[in-house]
């Protein structure tokens, strides 16, 4: 039942490394230094993110998990809509822990559909395929490894049915609001009227709760951020002294921007391959945004990108929302 579309591995690895190098050098050469959070997830980064999800302060995953465990029926109704035939595409499926509740529910209800998980990690996809074929053997799976939009295009070309796109895990939060809007517009452009999106968004709440979720007492989030420097050292032949950088977290309740930085603890010059990058004491590297929204702002994002918000479910604390939009 399982088919995959994958790019030959060696070619893919080389160009990925070149792109990594370009992005890192470009990000560190500007007047304001920054790195891209999509590069957090190497093997060690995956492991540290697992640990973050187990931190008492990091509520995000548990909130959305609660929604998928306790409001599966409602989610299923979002997907089934008018009952017309559909296929289910998940952007950034990862290990699909949350969506698996929905998949199982739909299979139990004998709803016919193909599940198309899209992820940039081929490793994660093969593990997912294996697990799903043993845990939900009746599920048709067609996984797609690569960039969201490239693979979305492929997924859309595979099927004439109505499309339902899952974008869970507050992944949209890793884009600044303007980028999120552009992303949502591009997503809309790849869909037809009647297609749907189910999108997970972390909501504004007490600012301390948010800041502490990204600044846990055990320092795992700090290690998660610093790990990107270690990855740059290893993969791009650089010489960051990890002990000379410190994690700093900021949450601005007005804008809803939760941002993480690394701060240089001294004047230092870092070498990346043949390039030198000077850091002043107290200079920062902007690492990641985890943008928070109100329910109203989520509805506005839908409208501004050409979707109609149809329904949503929040967890029992009202901290997280899975919203359903129709194209
Ligand atoms: C994977 C985007 C959901 O922003 O909450 C967690 C990543 N970074 N702690 C988030 C993250 C630091 C996470 N998402």
Automatic annotation (TrEMBL):
Lineage of the species this protein comes from: Bacteria, Pseudomonadati, Bacteroidota, Chitinophagia, Chitinophagales
GO biological-process terms attached to the record: methylation
Limits of the Histidine-specific methyltransferase SAM-dependent domain: 20-325
Domain of life according to the entry: Bacteria
InterPro entries, alphabetized: EgtD, EgtD_Methyltrsf_superfamily, MeTrfase_dom, MeTrfase_EgtD-like, SAM-dependent_MTases_sf
UniProt-listed Gene3D superfamilies: Vaccinia Virus protein VP39 (3.40.50.150)
Keyword Ubl conjugation set for record: no
Record keywords, A-Z: Methyltransferase, Transferase
UniProt organism field: Filimonas zeae
GO MF terms held by the record: methyltransferase activity
Protein's name according to its UniProt entry: Dimethylhistidine N-methyltransferase
